[in-house]
Amino acid sequence: MSSKASGVTFLGNPLTLSGPLPAVGKPAPDAVVLDGGLKPVRLSDYRGKTVVLVTVPSLDTPVCDTETRRFNKEAAALGEKVVVLAVSMDLPFAQARWCGAAGVQRVLALSDHRDAALGTAYGVLIKELRLLARSVFVIGADGVLRYEQLVSEVTHEPDYEAVLKAVRAAL
After folding, report:
1. In a domain? residue 24
2. In degrees rounded to 5, what are phi and psi of residue 128?
3. Per-10-residue mean pLDDT, the chain, length 171
4. How far apart are CA 155 and CA 61, in angstroms?
5. What does pTM read for this prediction?
6. CA distances from 155 to 128, 152, 163, 168 (A)
7. What 8-state DSSP symbol labels residue 105?
8. What is the CATH number for 116?
9. Which residues are known catalytic residues?
């Protein structure tokens, strides 16, 4: 697995990311993650819908909580042709508990804890922490990567407006 200096920091400290960052305009990498019942889910299972793929370090942290709640709110306005997936290294049981407590119903929380397959495939696995960097990818209904945003400081939120603009352009 390749590792690289990433330009991503945590509280100003540089981090190393594992795996290649996928290229916009190319087919989005497929990966298997786990749902709340420990059932394997492939990203390609969502082909035919526009996918907003959000990676976060942990749902149970303030910035990730705020971000996931925001995407949950936005998802309701985006309609049925869009699915929002929030992937973290959290255990599926913890994700389900957090979603229930937060009232998150329009974002599907998925776990990469078992194999870090998604983190590696999308180049967002933080080597030092074995967590996922904060990023957002928009995958068109045809499976092509339309947009990527790797947030340079893990404790910052993404640029929501840029993501929503990319989602609308992909529809």
Report:
1. no
2. -70, -30
3. 74 94 97 96 97 97 96 94 98 95 96 97 96 98 98 97 97 93
4. 10
5. 0.95
6. 16, 9, 18, 26
7. -
8. 3.40.30.10
9. 64
